[in-house]
Amino acid sequence: MSAERAAFDETIHAPVRLRISGLLRGAEKVDFAVLRDTIGISDATLSKHLKVLADAGYITTTKARSAARSDARRLTWVSQTAQGRAAFDGHVAELRRITGEGGSLAP
């Protein structure tokens, strides 16, 4: 984890967005379908949560052709921004602080 300042983040704290952020943290980019299937939610639900994260500046999405498909459909790739990584790291640090896992409960 980076040396980001511990700070509770309401945007990330929602359970689905926390899981999305955690999955994206260790990856350069993740396919929309992989996120959907890993979390076990519908396309619409994932899209809604990705929009919230994108509006906060925490993720970006890109579309690209799939070499495995012969049709015109595109894959949607989701990437966490530097701002999103910092917010996630700070949120996790704050959760650790308030649970006492990080050592001191002092702010």
Structure description:
With 107 residues, the protein is of the alpha+beta class. The chain is built from 5 helices and 3 strands. The longest helix has 18 residues. It starts with 9 loop residues before the first helix and ends in an 8-residue tail after the last helix. The model has no long low-confidence stretch (mean pLDDT 89).
Provide mean pLDDT, rounded. Answer: 89
The largest pleated sheet is described as: 3 strands, antiparallel
Order of helices and strands: HHEHHEEH
Helical run tally: 5
The total beta strand count reads 3
Quick structural gist:
By secondary structure, the chain is α+β, with helices and mostly antiparallel strands. It has helices spanning 10-13, 15-25, 32-39, 43-55, 82-99, and strands at residues 30-31, 59-65, 74-80.
Question: What key attributes describe this structure?
Answer:
three-stranded antiparallel β-sheet; elongated; 107 residues; single chain; alpha+beta
Describe the protein's topology:
Blueprint: H1 10-13, H2 15-25, E1 30-31, H3 32-39, H4 43-55, E2 59-65, E3 74-80, H5 82-99
Antiparallel strand pairs: 1-3, 2-3
